[in-house]
Write a structure and sequence with these properties.
single chain, mainly alpha, Flavocytochrome C3, Chain A, domain 2, binds heme C
């Protein structure tokens, strides 16, 4: 009886472990590691330039401003904005020292970075964690609104078409 119980416990633990491994928490590599290939129209396109010049690349720097600290204080937080979890949530992709990086929208690239590119199957990259939001089917707008919403202390409105034009890259 005791053996049966411990076998069951072991089996459950094993199932939980494999489920965790396969659902995959992928590592973030940072937007700088996309630069070499995604700065060239003949290679991966010019997404890096579009991103580097946008508000997204500066979203962490924004939290280090006096204005941000003031907002955090008014919200009742005791910590500086750049150290407040509730602010970092939307302003930073991961532990990497950058703002809203490529991987906020395309998924953590640790496992798909080497599995995508010319002649490579997009499905394989997606199985390894790549996200491909689309303008046409509304999935991009849905993604934007996970951050561009009234939980943002400075939110006024979000007009998708206008805002996409400011960061447009890829086919859209
Ligand atoms: C070694 C070069 C290289 C690196 C590094 C690289 N990419 Fe790419 N990537 C490409 C190429 C080439 C394509 C275009 C494939 C095509 O046109 O068929 C591409 C396409 C893509 C696509 C479109 C889907 C697809 O598979 O065609 C996404 C999204 C993408 N890359 C994201 C990223 C992100 C995010 C990073 C950084 C974490 C990154 N890439 C790093 C070369 C690279
Ligand atoms: C992970 C959260 C997050 C997601 C997802 C996100 N954004 Fe943002 N976005 C931000 C933050 C934070 C800022 C503020 C950056 C700053 O000013 O420091 C911002 C700023 C911007 C700006 C610059 C503001 C301006 O008026 O010039 C544009 C444009 C923008 N986002 C468009 C988009 C679009 C379009 C999408 C979806 C395709 C999107 N964002 C998805 C968090 C996000
Ligand atoms: C739900 C996501 C979200 C959260 C949480 C969030 N922000 Fe933002 N923040 C954004 C977005 C998106 C923008 C750009 C558009 C806007 O103002 O809504 C932004 C813009 C800003 C700006 C620039 C405003 C401007 O007009 O240029 C500051 C400063 C800022 N946020 C500070 C903070 C601080 C401080 C916190 C924590 C108390 C915080 N944010 C929490 C999403 C968020
Ligand atoms: C705010 C979200 C967001 C960020 C940040 C972002 N992208 Fe994108 N990206 C998109 C969306 C949405 C599309 C699809 C546009 C469309 O429908 O044609 C796209 C398209 C692409 C494509 C073309 C895919 C295709 O269909 O051929 C590539 C390549 C790409 N992104 C790479 C990058 C890289 C590299 C970075 C960082 C330097 C980056 N993206 C940052 C949202 C984002």
């Amino acid at each position: 009886m005791k053996n049966a119980v411990s076998f069951l416990a072991l089996a459950l633990a094993f199932t939980a472990l494999t489920a965790f491994t396969f659902s995959g928490s992928h590592d973030y590599v940072g937007s700088k590691s996309c630069k070499a290939c995604h700065s060239n129209a003949k290679m991966g396109g010019t997404a890096f330039k579009a991103w580097d010049g946008s508000g997204h690349s500066k979203a962490l720097a924004t939290l280090k401003s006096a204005e941000a600290d003031k907002i955090a204080k008014e919200k009742g937080f005791k910590t500086k904005a750049a150290e407040t979890k509730e602010c970092l949530e939307c302003h930073v992709t991961s532990a990497k020292d950058e703002g809203v990086g490529c991987e906020s929208c395309h998924g953590a690239a640790g496992d798909y970075k080497s599995k995508h590119g010319k002649g490579k199957d997009v499905a394989t990259a997606m199985a390894a964690g790549m996200m491909l939001p689309k303008v046409d089917d509304g999935s991009a707008e849905k993604l934007c609104k996970t951050c561009h919403n009234d939980k943002s202390p400075t939110f006024k409105e979000f007009k998708f078409k206008e805002m996409w034009t400011k960061i447009a890259h890829g086919k859209g």
